[in-house]
Amino acid sequence: QYEIYLAGLGGVLPQLPMRFDELERRAEAALSPSLVSYIAGGAGDEFTQRINTSAFEQWGLVPRMLRPTAERDLSVELFGMALPSPLLMSPVGIVGLAAQDGHGDIATARAAAITGIPMIASTLSVDPLEAVAAEMGDTPGLFQLYTPTDRDVAASLVNRAEAAGYKAIVVTVDAWIPGWRPRDLSTSNFPQLRGHCLANYFTDPAFLALLDKTPVDDLSAAVAKWAQLFGNMLTWDDLPWLRSLTDLPMIVKGIGNGEDARRVKDAGFDGIFCSNHGGRQANGGRSAIDTLPEVVEAADGLPVLFDSGIRSGADIVKALALGATAVGIGRPYVYGLALAGAEGIVHVLRSLLAETDLIMAVDGYPTLADLQPNALRRNLFAG
Ligand code: FNR
């Protein structure tokens, strides 16, 4: 931040927005209306999406002065990965299209390589998972699985992810069917967009074996086949089979209450991802941050990842203090991508971490271990 301040004194201002609202506004101006609907939109009247962000305001960090914070340590060990910070890029399907060259998954992987911040690559990527992994450099990657109904295809995707070097599998359970998203519905573009995100299927031997003709020869039949496999409603009975697919650490994403967290733990999974999908799936739910404490309590020591609503370093600090082992962001990095490709993502990630680090410095919390629930109090004004 000193560099930015000093450059500002010399009249040189940052080219990319420093505030989230400006980042969002400029990214939306740069994207097509249908992509704006797809990325920014949420379920219903977007109440849950709104409170995902505003609920952070109910918490305030207790300032603790005169503690030694000249040296801070944000590093964390997660599923055997030594990470520089507790920040991850959450999986965003079709993110590829947000890049000017249409290869946003590759750009996101490049940003991961530059920053050391892991990307969780979505099943619904524009480029195949192997190509995405190849761009990650030394930064470990995670693969997010939307589990197809065909178990051979599911196993094949997991095996490919393992062979490509991904370090963990994140199984998303809250989006086997798309939510009621009026912005997508009114632009009617969601089905069209989906056609662009099947690279992982169209390169998959188990999927191709189910087709009479290759996707090149009959695209609509291949898309129809995919649509048939995609809507797999997993139940608790499927978890032992899922768990048996790999020895890699497995995390279940989309958990929002303590009882479910306990069941995931009991099923032998390695982590719980507390998330409401950024408010995109079901409106009328609780804010994600409100569900975090009971998930952490039930996880009873198992790592808990958190996303949905994080827009600032202050939000990151609060989620960590409420017990998250690490946090993810979705839309913020997509907006960086839309504005300036990998460089835009790097800008967003570094800005968030700089703010996190400065809050820890100013308020007296030099390490992540110092960020405990007692570091937070309710802000009375927020009720
Ligand atoms: C998502 N999310 C998501 N999650 C997932 O597990 N697989 C996916 O393919 C996608 N796709 C996707 C697309 C878009 C456009 C968005 C915005 C989100 C959910 C994502 O991983 C994450 O949970 C939320 O984005 C977090 O909320 P914020 O940070 O966007 O508020």
Structural commentary:
By secondary structure, the chain is an alpha/beta fold. It has a single domain, classed as Alpha-Beta Barrel (TIM Barrel). The chain has helices at residues 2-9, 20-30, 33-40, 47-54, 104-115, 129-134, 151-163, 182-187, 190-194, 199-202, 205-208, 219-230, 239-243, 258-266, 288-299, 313-321, 331-363; strands at residues 59-61, 76-78, 81-83, 87-89, 120-121, 142-145, 168-172, 250-255, 271-274, 304-306, 326-329, 376-378. The protein has an eight-stranded parallel sheet. The protein has a two-stranded antiparallel ribbon with strand order 1-12. Strand 5 (120-121), helix 6 and strand 6 (142-145) form a beta-alpha-beta unit. The protein is globular. The model has no long low-confidence stretch (mean pLDDT 95). It binds ligand FNR. Ligand FNR binds at residues 38-39, 52, 90-93, 122, 124, 144, 172, 253, 275, 277-278, 280, 307-310, 329-331. The active site is at residue 277. Residues 12-381 form the FMN hydroxy acid dehydrogenase domain. Glyoxylate binds at residues 38, 122, 146, 181, 253, 277, 280. FMN binds at residues 91-93, 144, 172, 275, 307-311, 330-331.
Q: Helix and strand layout, with pairings?
A:
Elements lengths: L1 H8 L10 H11 L2 H8 L6 H8 L4 E3 L14 E3 L2 E3 L3 E3 L14 H12 L4 E2 L7 H6 L7 E4 L5 H13 L4 E5 L9 H6 L2 H5 L4 H4 L2 H4 L10 H12 L8 H5 L6 E6 L2 H9 L4 E4 L13 H12 L4 E3 L6 H9 L4 E4 L1 H33 L12 E3 L5
Parallel strand pairs: 4-11, 5-6, 6-7, 7-8, 8-9, 9-10, 10-11
Antiparallel strand pairs: 1-12, 2-3
Helix pairs in contact: 2-17, 5-17, 14-15, 16-17
Bound molecules: ligand FNR.
